[in-house]
Structure formats: structure tokens, C-alpha cells
Amino acid sequence: MSTALSPKAAEIAQHARTLLEAGGYNSFSYADISARVNISKASIHHHFPSKAELVRVVVALYREEARAGMAALDTQLADPLAELKAYLGYWVNCIEGQVSSFCLCAMLGTELPALPDDIALEIRGHFGDLASWLASLMEKGSQSGQLRLTQAPTLEAEVFMATVHGAMMSARVAQDPKVFQSITALLIEKLAA
Length: 193
Known about the structure:
Blueprint: H1 7-23, H2 30-37, H3 41-47, H4 51-76, H5 80-96, H6 104-109, H7 117-144, H8 153-174, H9 177-191
Helix pairs in contact: 1-2, 1-4, 4-7, 5-7, 5-9, 7-8, 8-9
């Protein structure tokens, strides 16, 4: 699936993503987007009839971006431990550079019971995509002797994912990007054979 947007719709979606990553679903309105994009709320409704549709599209785009990133790591590195480190490095760069301090789907995942079903479906899809990719890395890494697993690859993947998202939260609370690095360095240290 490819979510093609007009340049103005893409700009609206990008601003919505920034607001979502900072504060979640209820942290913004079309008035906030209107002020940032310098168009009327009615014009936003032309591109996205509802806030729910805007957020669904933002999450769908995020999923596409994440899947492309995972595929690129598989192609470029083809080394499970290096891929895990590169994935963590991506987040280190985002958090330190203040590009994004939190995974969009992790942020929205905390609000899942209150979100519209189509958004929840996209969020669950992202976590499924990420968990499958991580499990495949865990399995390959275990088979090659690079990774030391104490549980099944699928459970190790879930633990890895939960630790990464928890480290994001810890870094945000501490207002210190180094917290993320410290936690995830320990995660890699425990996994590396």
C-alpha cells in the first residue's frame, strides 16, 4: 500500500505527526494545524474530512516509512546484530537531534482504548510489523551464534520492543537522551553472544 498525498496534504500530515509524537491524539486540533500550515480549517477538511482520518493517514505513512526502513536494513546490512544496533542508532539520532523523541505508534498505543478502530488497527499493524522483523533478526542471530537468546525469538522480540519503547519514555521523563542510550546499550550487551 502506498499513501500518496498532494504537497499540501503531506505538509498537513507532517505537522500532525509532530504534534502527535509530542502529545498524542488529543494534543491538537485542526486550529493548531491551520496555524502551522497557514490555511483555513475548512481547507484542512478538504484534504482530511476528519481528525480520525488525518491521524489514520499519518499512522499509515509512519508504517510505510518503518517497513521501508526495516527492509533497507535487511538489504544494506544483512547482519542481525548490526541491524539491531542500526535500529537503536536511528532512535538515538532522533532523540538526541530532537527530530522525534518518541515512536508515534508507542505514543498512540497508550491511548488505544480511546482511539477510533481504524487508527487502532494501523497501530496494531505497526507493532505486528516491528515484532515480526525483530523476531526474524532474533532467530537469524541465534542461528548464526551472534545473539544469545534465553526465550523464543518471538518473546525476545517483544522484550526488545518493550525495552526500546520504555527507554524512550525514561529518556523523555528524565529529559536526557543519554538515558535511552544507556538502557539500549545494556539491552544489546545482554543479547550479544
